[in-house]
Fold:
Amino acid sequence: MRLDDLYSQLTISTGAKLVLVVLDGVGDVATPEQGGLTPLEAAQTPNLDQLAQVSALGRMIPVAPGITPGSGPGHLALFGYDPIEYQVGRGVIEALGLGVDLQPGDVCARANFATLDDKGIVTDRRAGRIPTETCERLCARLQERIQQLGDTRVIIRPGKEHRFVVVFRGPDLEGPLTDADPNREGLPIPRAEPRDPQNPRQQKMAKLVAEFYQAALPLLAGEKPANGFLMRGIAHQPHIPQFEERYRLRAAALAVYPMYKGLAQLVGMTKLEGPQTVREQFERYLAEYDRYDFFFIHHKATDKAGEDGNFEAKKRAIEELDAALPVLLQKKPDVLAITGDHSTPCVVRGHSWHPQPVLLHSRYSGTDKRARFTEHDANHGSLGLFEARFLLRLMQAHARMFDKFGA
Amino acid sequence: MRLDDLYSQLTISTGAKLVLVVLDGVGDVATPEQGGLTPLEAAQTPNLDQLAQVSALGRMIPVAPGITPGSGPGHLALFGYDPIEYQVGRGVIEALGLGVDLQPGDVCARANFATLDDKGIVTDRRAGRIPTETCERLCARLQERIQQLGDTRVIIRPGKEHRFVVVFRGPDLEGPLTDADPNREGLPIPRAEPRDPQNPRQQKMAKLVAEFYQAALPLLAGEKPANGFLMRGIAHQPHIPQFEERYRLRAAALAVYPMYKGLAQLVGMTKLEGPQTVREQFERYLAEYDRYDFFFIHHKATDKAGEDGNFEAKKRAIEELDAALPVLLQKKPDVLAITGDHSTPCVVRGHSWHPQPVLLHSRYSGTDKRARFTEHDANHGSLGLFEARFLLRLMQAHARMFDKFGA
Structure:
């Protein structure tokens, strides 16, 4: 019996309110360069401290030991999905990140402009990192001339610098395909081929990509340096069991950045637009309290500071959350979890594999007798070290949403 | 390779003595309502404290994160079986609970008396919760008239109030069937059908249940309010690898309540009858020391107190165990584990999903430098947080019962 099936079988609706606050990349490591403290340890967090003293603490492995997740797997795990079972192609993530309203069955590709010589050999895979405005102008031109290929709609959306995405929306399409990218200069663009040569939907998709190249390359012929493009991560939006059906929770997402809105939308959460700061997000939670059972609230600044290796900025991003926390607690949810989707240690200047700390508060969480919410305190918590995909199940348990298993 | 097969392959007999003491539902949470202490923390336990100081500590997930086990899955895990793989039907658990000496292949049903109107519609699913004496009288009447249906023996055993069990013992029987229970008033009793319509043993079983109804209903026709009955959880005793063969340990069970005796019997332990208190159980252990290698000693009072939300009673139940502990230690086993089958926090007033604390003592356990056996101390132990089904394997390891794996 699959464990997810057991959880589903035991699930009951209770009307409880659950809130998941994600401080993106909050986890860190205490290194000598930083005075032996993590940003969570260095930050002034009176409100988090008070909450930690009546909560259960622990640390979570985002995917598997040693694996550094991107935002996609990191959030899928927090939403209770096994990120290895439910893999979302890079094209889909990029499209979500650019705010494309994806539909089930859409096939997406990450693309970027490149420079070709007169024999079609790739001489610069990033077309000299053309300015974003050029990218936007070229995408607009492509979109104007290529709206449809046979029965399939084509959606082209520019990203930053040389990057863009192409979405194919039509019947009987499927990924994944191999990349239309030689992965180094000095070679021609290879044809995107079905990963499974017997799969007729992948065959159809490969034909569409070839047709897209045939239509698009002539439109770029006069450009310099962006007279070509590469396509990678060509895959369809996977079927993901939808949140409300899976957990019996009406879920809303309060996120500022498109990618996190997109990931929430992928699992069927309702996007609540508007709030720009964490305080505004908490205020909006208060306003929407009665309409949803589950709130995903995403705070990006911690991750950005970690990516920049900016210890002070990461500390301030945590303090900003702490200062706003009393707003959230005006309507204290039945179950509140505060954590990250992964660690982004300043010393790494990027996502990492270090287990992120987690705080879980409910009437049934008890206290772990720890003074603060830090990595060190979390090491001593009753939740121990566990896989992030179980956090949502623990939240359900604390909401009394599971029947007893067996007599 | 299945992990269980690896364990079996490595297992050797050493003649070591292993003791598993189960304080049913001992785990708890420290809540403000209880002064921030758990019953283990509040209890005076000088003997447990002394033992904890030279033991390894940890916490165990009874089934999977967030899942609250019944006594069946809780104990199967402690006995080293994956409780999701080895699921025991409610009928089997109830029959064990009422002390029926089940045999492999027996199909059991939970039943309860109900009230039917003159069209056979269920008007009260519990027949007004008739007194236990009435239930006993009606069960005796049914058993007297219905002893056999074709080649199958029928065993009827009364429970409390309106509850009873029916056991079918005959060739080629199998469950599970659907319930002969409309699950609400206002509907007739549905026929119990095979869960797998192609399974001939389930078909035979469904026919037997129908025949049982045909024979039994007329015997209740004149009764008021108990003129009918419902049957649920109709399933056979699953095949469970027997304890001695699986672990190379001759095992004995010292339990007072029938359900725990029954669960021990299900895996092939010998039931040692007689002792009523934990002190008497420990004395009996001393007397039987040479005849068995493994002793399962079950102390119920902690769970009952937790179910009642009675903090003081739970504390006293722990102190009762502590006071008797020196008796057990007169013949110190080679490996001693003290734990619960799950938590029954006073604040929950029922079983819960919170990992239970565990203490493991042997010549090889070392010390975790913790002063006491409490949930909080267990959070800091060397055993970490692990699945309860591995405790028995750890006990075997501490008994030096596993050969080295690989060169």
Observations:
- The domain at 10-88+240-398 of chain A is CATH 3.40.720.10 (Alkaline Phosphatase, subunit A).
- Chain A is about 35% helix and 20% strand.
- The first strand of chain A starts at residue 18 and ends at 23.
